[in-house]
Structure to design on (329 residues):
């Protein structure tokens, strides 16, 4: 079975990715590391632990990761502004969130491990005999730090599957996707590390949207896990409707789940090309995904999924949740 480490800022779609990884029974989740992103690293770790408790998989260790990006110094202020704007006096468009903490799920007694995500990665990769795949669905801070601390770990990593970036689509600024915008230097380090990197950007995830009717079908599979999955999808639909409407009404992109599903069925991604990608590091280009358009440039540093097979993705997600009652019991 393929061994994976997940690096998450859980997060609604991160939670769906974690559930799919575990429920599929096709992947061995070695550990989950949190990182500061959609939620603070501490909350992301706690949200992850609650999901593992729901799945009865608290044997999977959770490590708290970096609490700020590698370089960006304005980030904390920006984050505070973001938290502030969710207060009731702000207009509804500002207040509906894609990600809220899972306080409504039972807390886990497991707690996160007492070493940091960076310490875990260094120790695990030094000791592991097999290569491991990393699925990163938050800012790339932990992995950027890891590659700076010990570049030789590149040889121990099979592939890094990253949800991040956007060629034709952005979501947090006029030029950037959220995970890359939050830590552009880390994204740049990872993409240029020499690792086998696959980017699953907004161009692909927006093609693989899930509708409210499809969330109903998932819920009807009839257990707590499927009900939680449907709830997360509906929350994302609400947020999309209000602040980032998609072409298809009443639908949501489930970015991180698509990245994870690539490991279950690579055909969910379409038009995957070797490219040379750089990340903008300042001003209007901060966090921008810059794909070199020169077809004669052969200095490719990653693969980039320009599209996705929506039907294949929905069928995989629905079937995995349908089976979840048997898997968990
Ligand atoms: O831009 C989408 C990404 O930002 C997703 O990974 C989402 O969970 C947030 O982290
Ligand atoms: Ca995420």
């Amino acid at each position: 079975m393929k061994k994976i480490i997940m690096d998450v800022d859980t997060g609604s779609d991160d939670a769906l990715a974690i559930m799919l990884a575990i429920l599929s029974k096709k992947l061995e989740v070695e550990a989950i590391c949190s990182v500061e992103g959609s939620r603070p690293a501490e909350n992301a770790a706690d949200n992850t632990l609650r999901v593992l408790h729901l799945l009865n998989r608290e044997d999977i260790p959770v490590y708290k990761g970096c609490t700020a990006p590698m370089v960006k110094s304005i980030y904390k202020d920006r984050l505070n502004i973001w938290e502030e704007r969710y207060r009731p006096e702000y207009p509804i468009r500002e207040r509906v969130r894609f990600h809220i903490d899972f306080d409504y799920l039972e807390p886990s007694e497991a707690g996160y491990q007492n070493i940091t995500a960076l310490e875990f990665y260094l120790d695990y990769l030094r000791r592991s005999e097999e290569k491991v795949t990393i699925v990163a669905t938050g800012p790339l801070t932990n992995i950027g730090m890891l590659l700076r601390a010990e570049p030789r770990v590149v040889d121990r990593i099979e592939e890094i599957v990253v949800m991040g970036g956007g060629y034709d689509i952005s979501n947090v600024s006029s030029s950037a996707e959220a995970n890359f915008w939050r830590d552009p230097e880390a994204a740049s380090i990872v993409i240029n590390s020499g690792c086998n990197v696959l980017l699953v950007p907004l161009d692909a995830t927006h093609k693989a949207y899930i509708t409210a009717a499809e969330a109903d079908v998932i819920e009807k599979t009839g257990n707590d896990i499927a009900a939680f999955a449907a709830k997360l999808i509906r929350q994302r639909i609400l947020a999309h409707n209000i602040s980032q409407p998609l072409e298809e009404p009443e639908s949501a992109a489930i970015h991180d789940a698509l990245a994870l599903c690539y490991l279950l069925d690579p055909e969910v991604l379409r038009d995957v090309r070797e490219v040379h990608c750089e990340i903008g590091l300042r001003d209007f280009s901060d966090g921008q995904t810059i794909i070199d358009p020169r077809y004669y440039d052969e200095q490719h540093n990653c693969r980039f999924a320009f599209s996705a097979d929506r039907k294949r993705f929905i069928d995989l997600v629905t079937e995995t949740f349908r089976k979840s009652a048997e898997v968990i019991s």
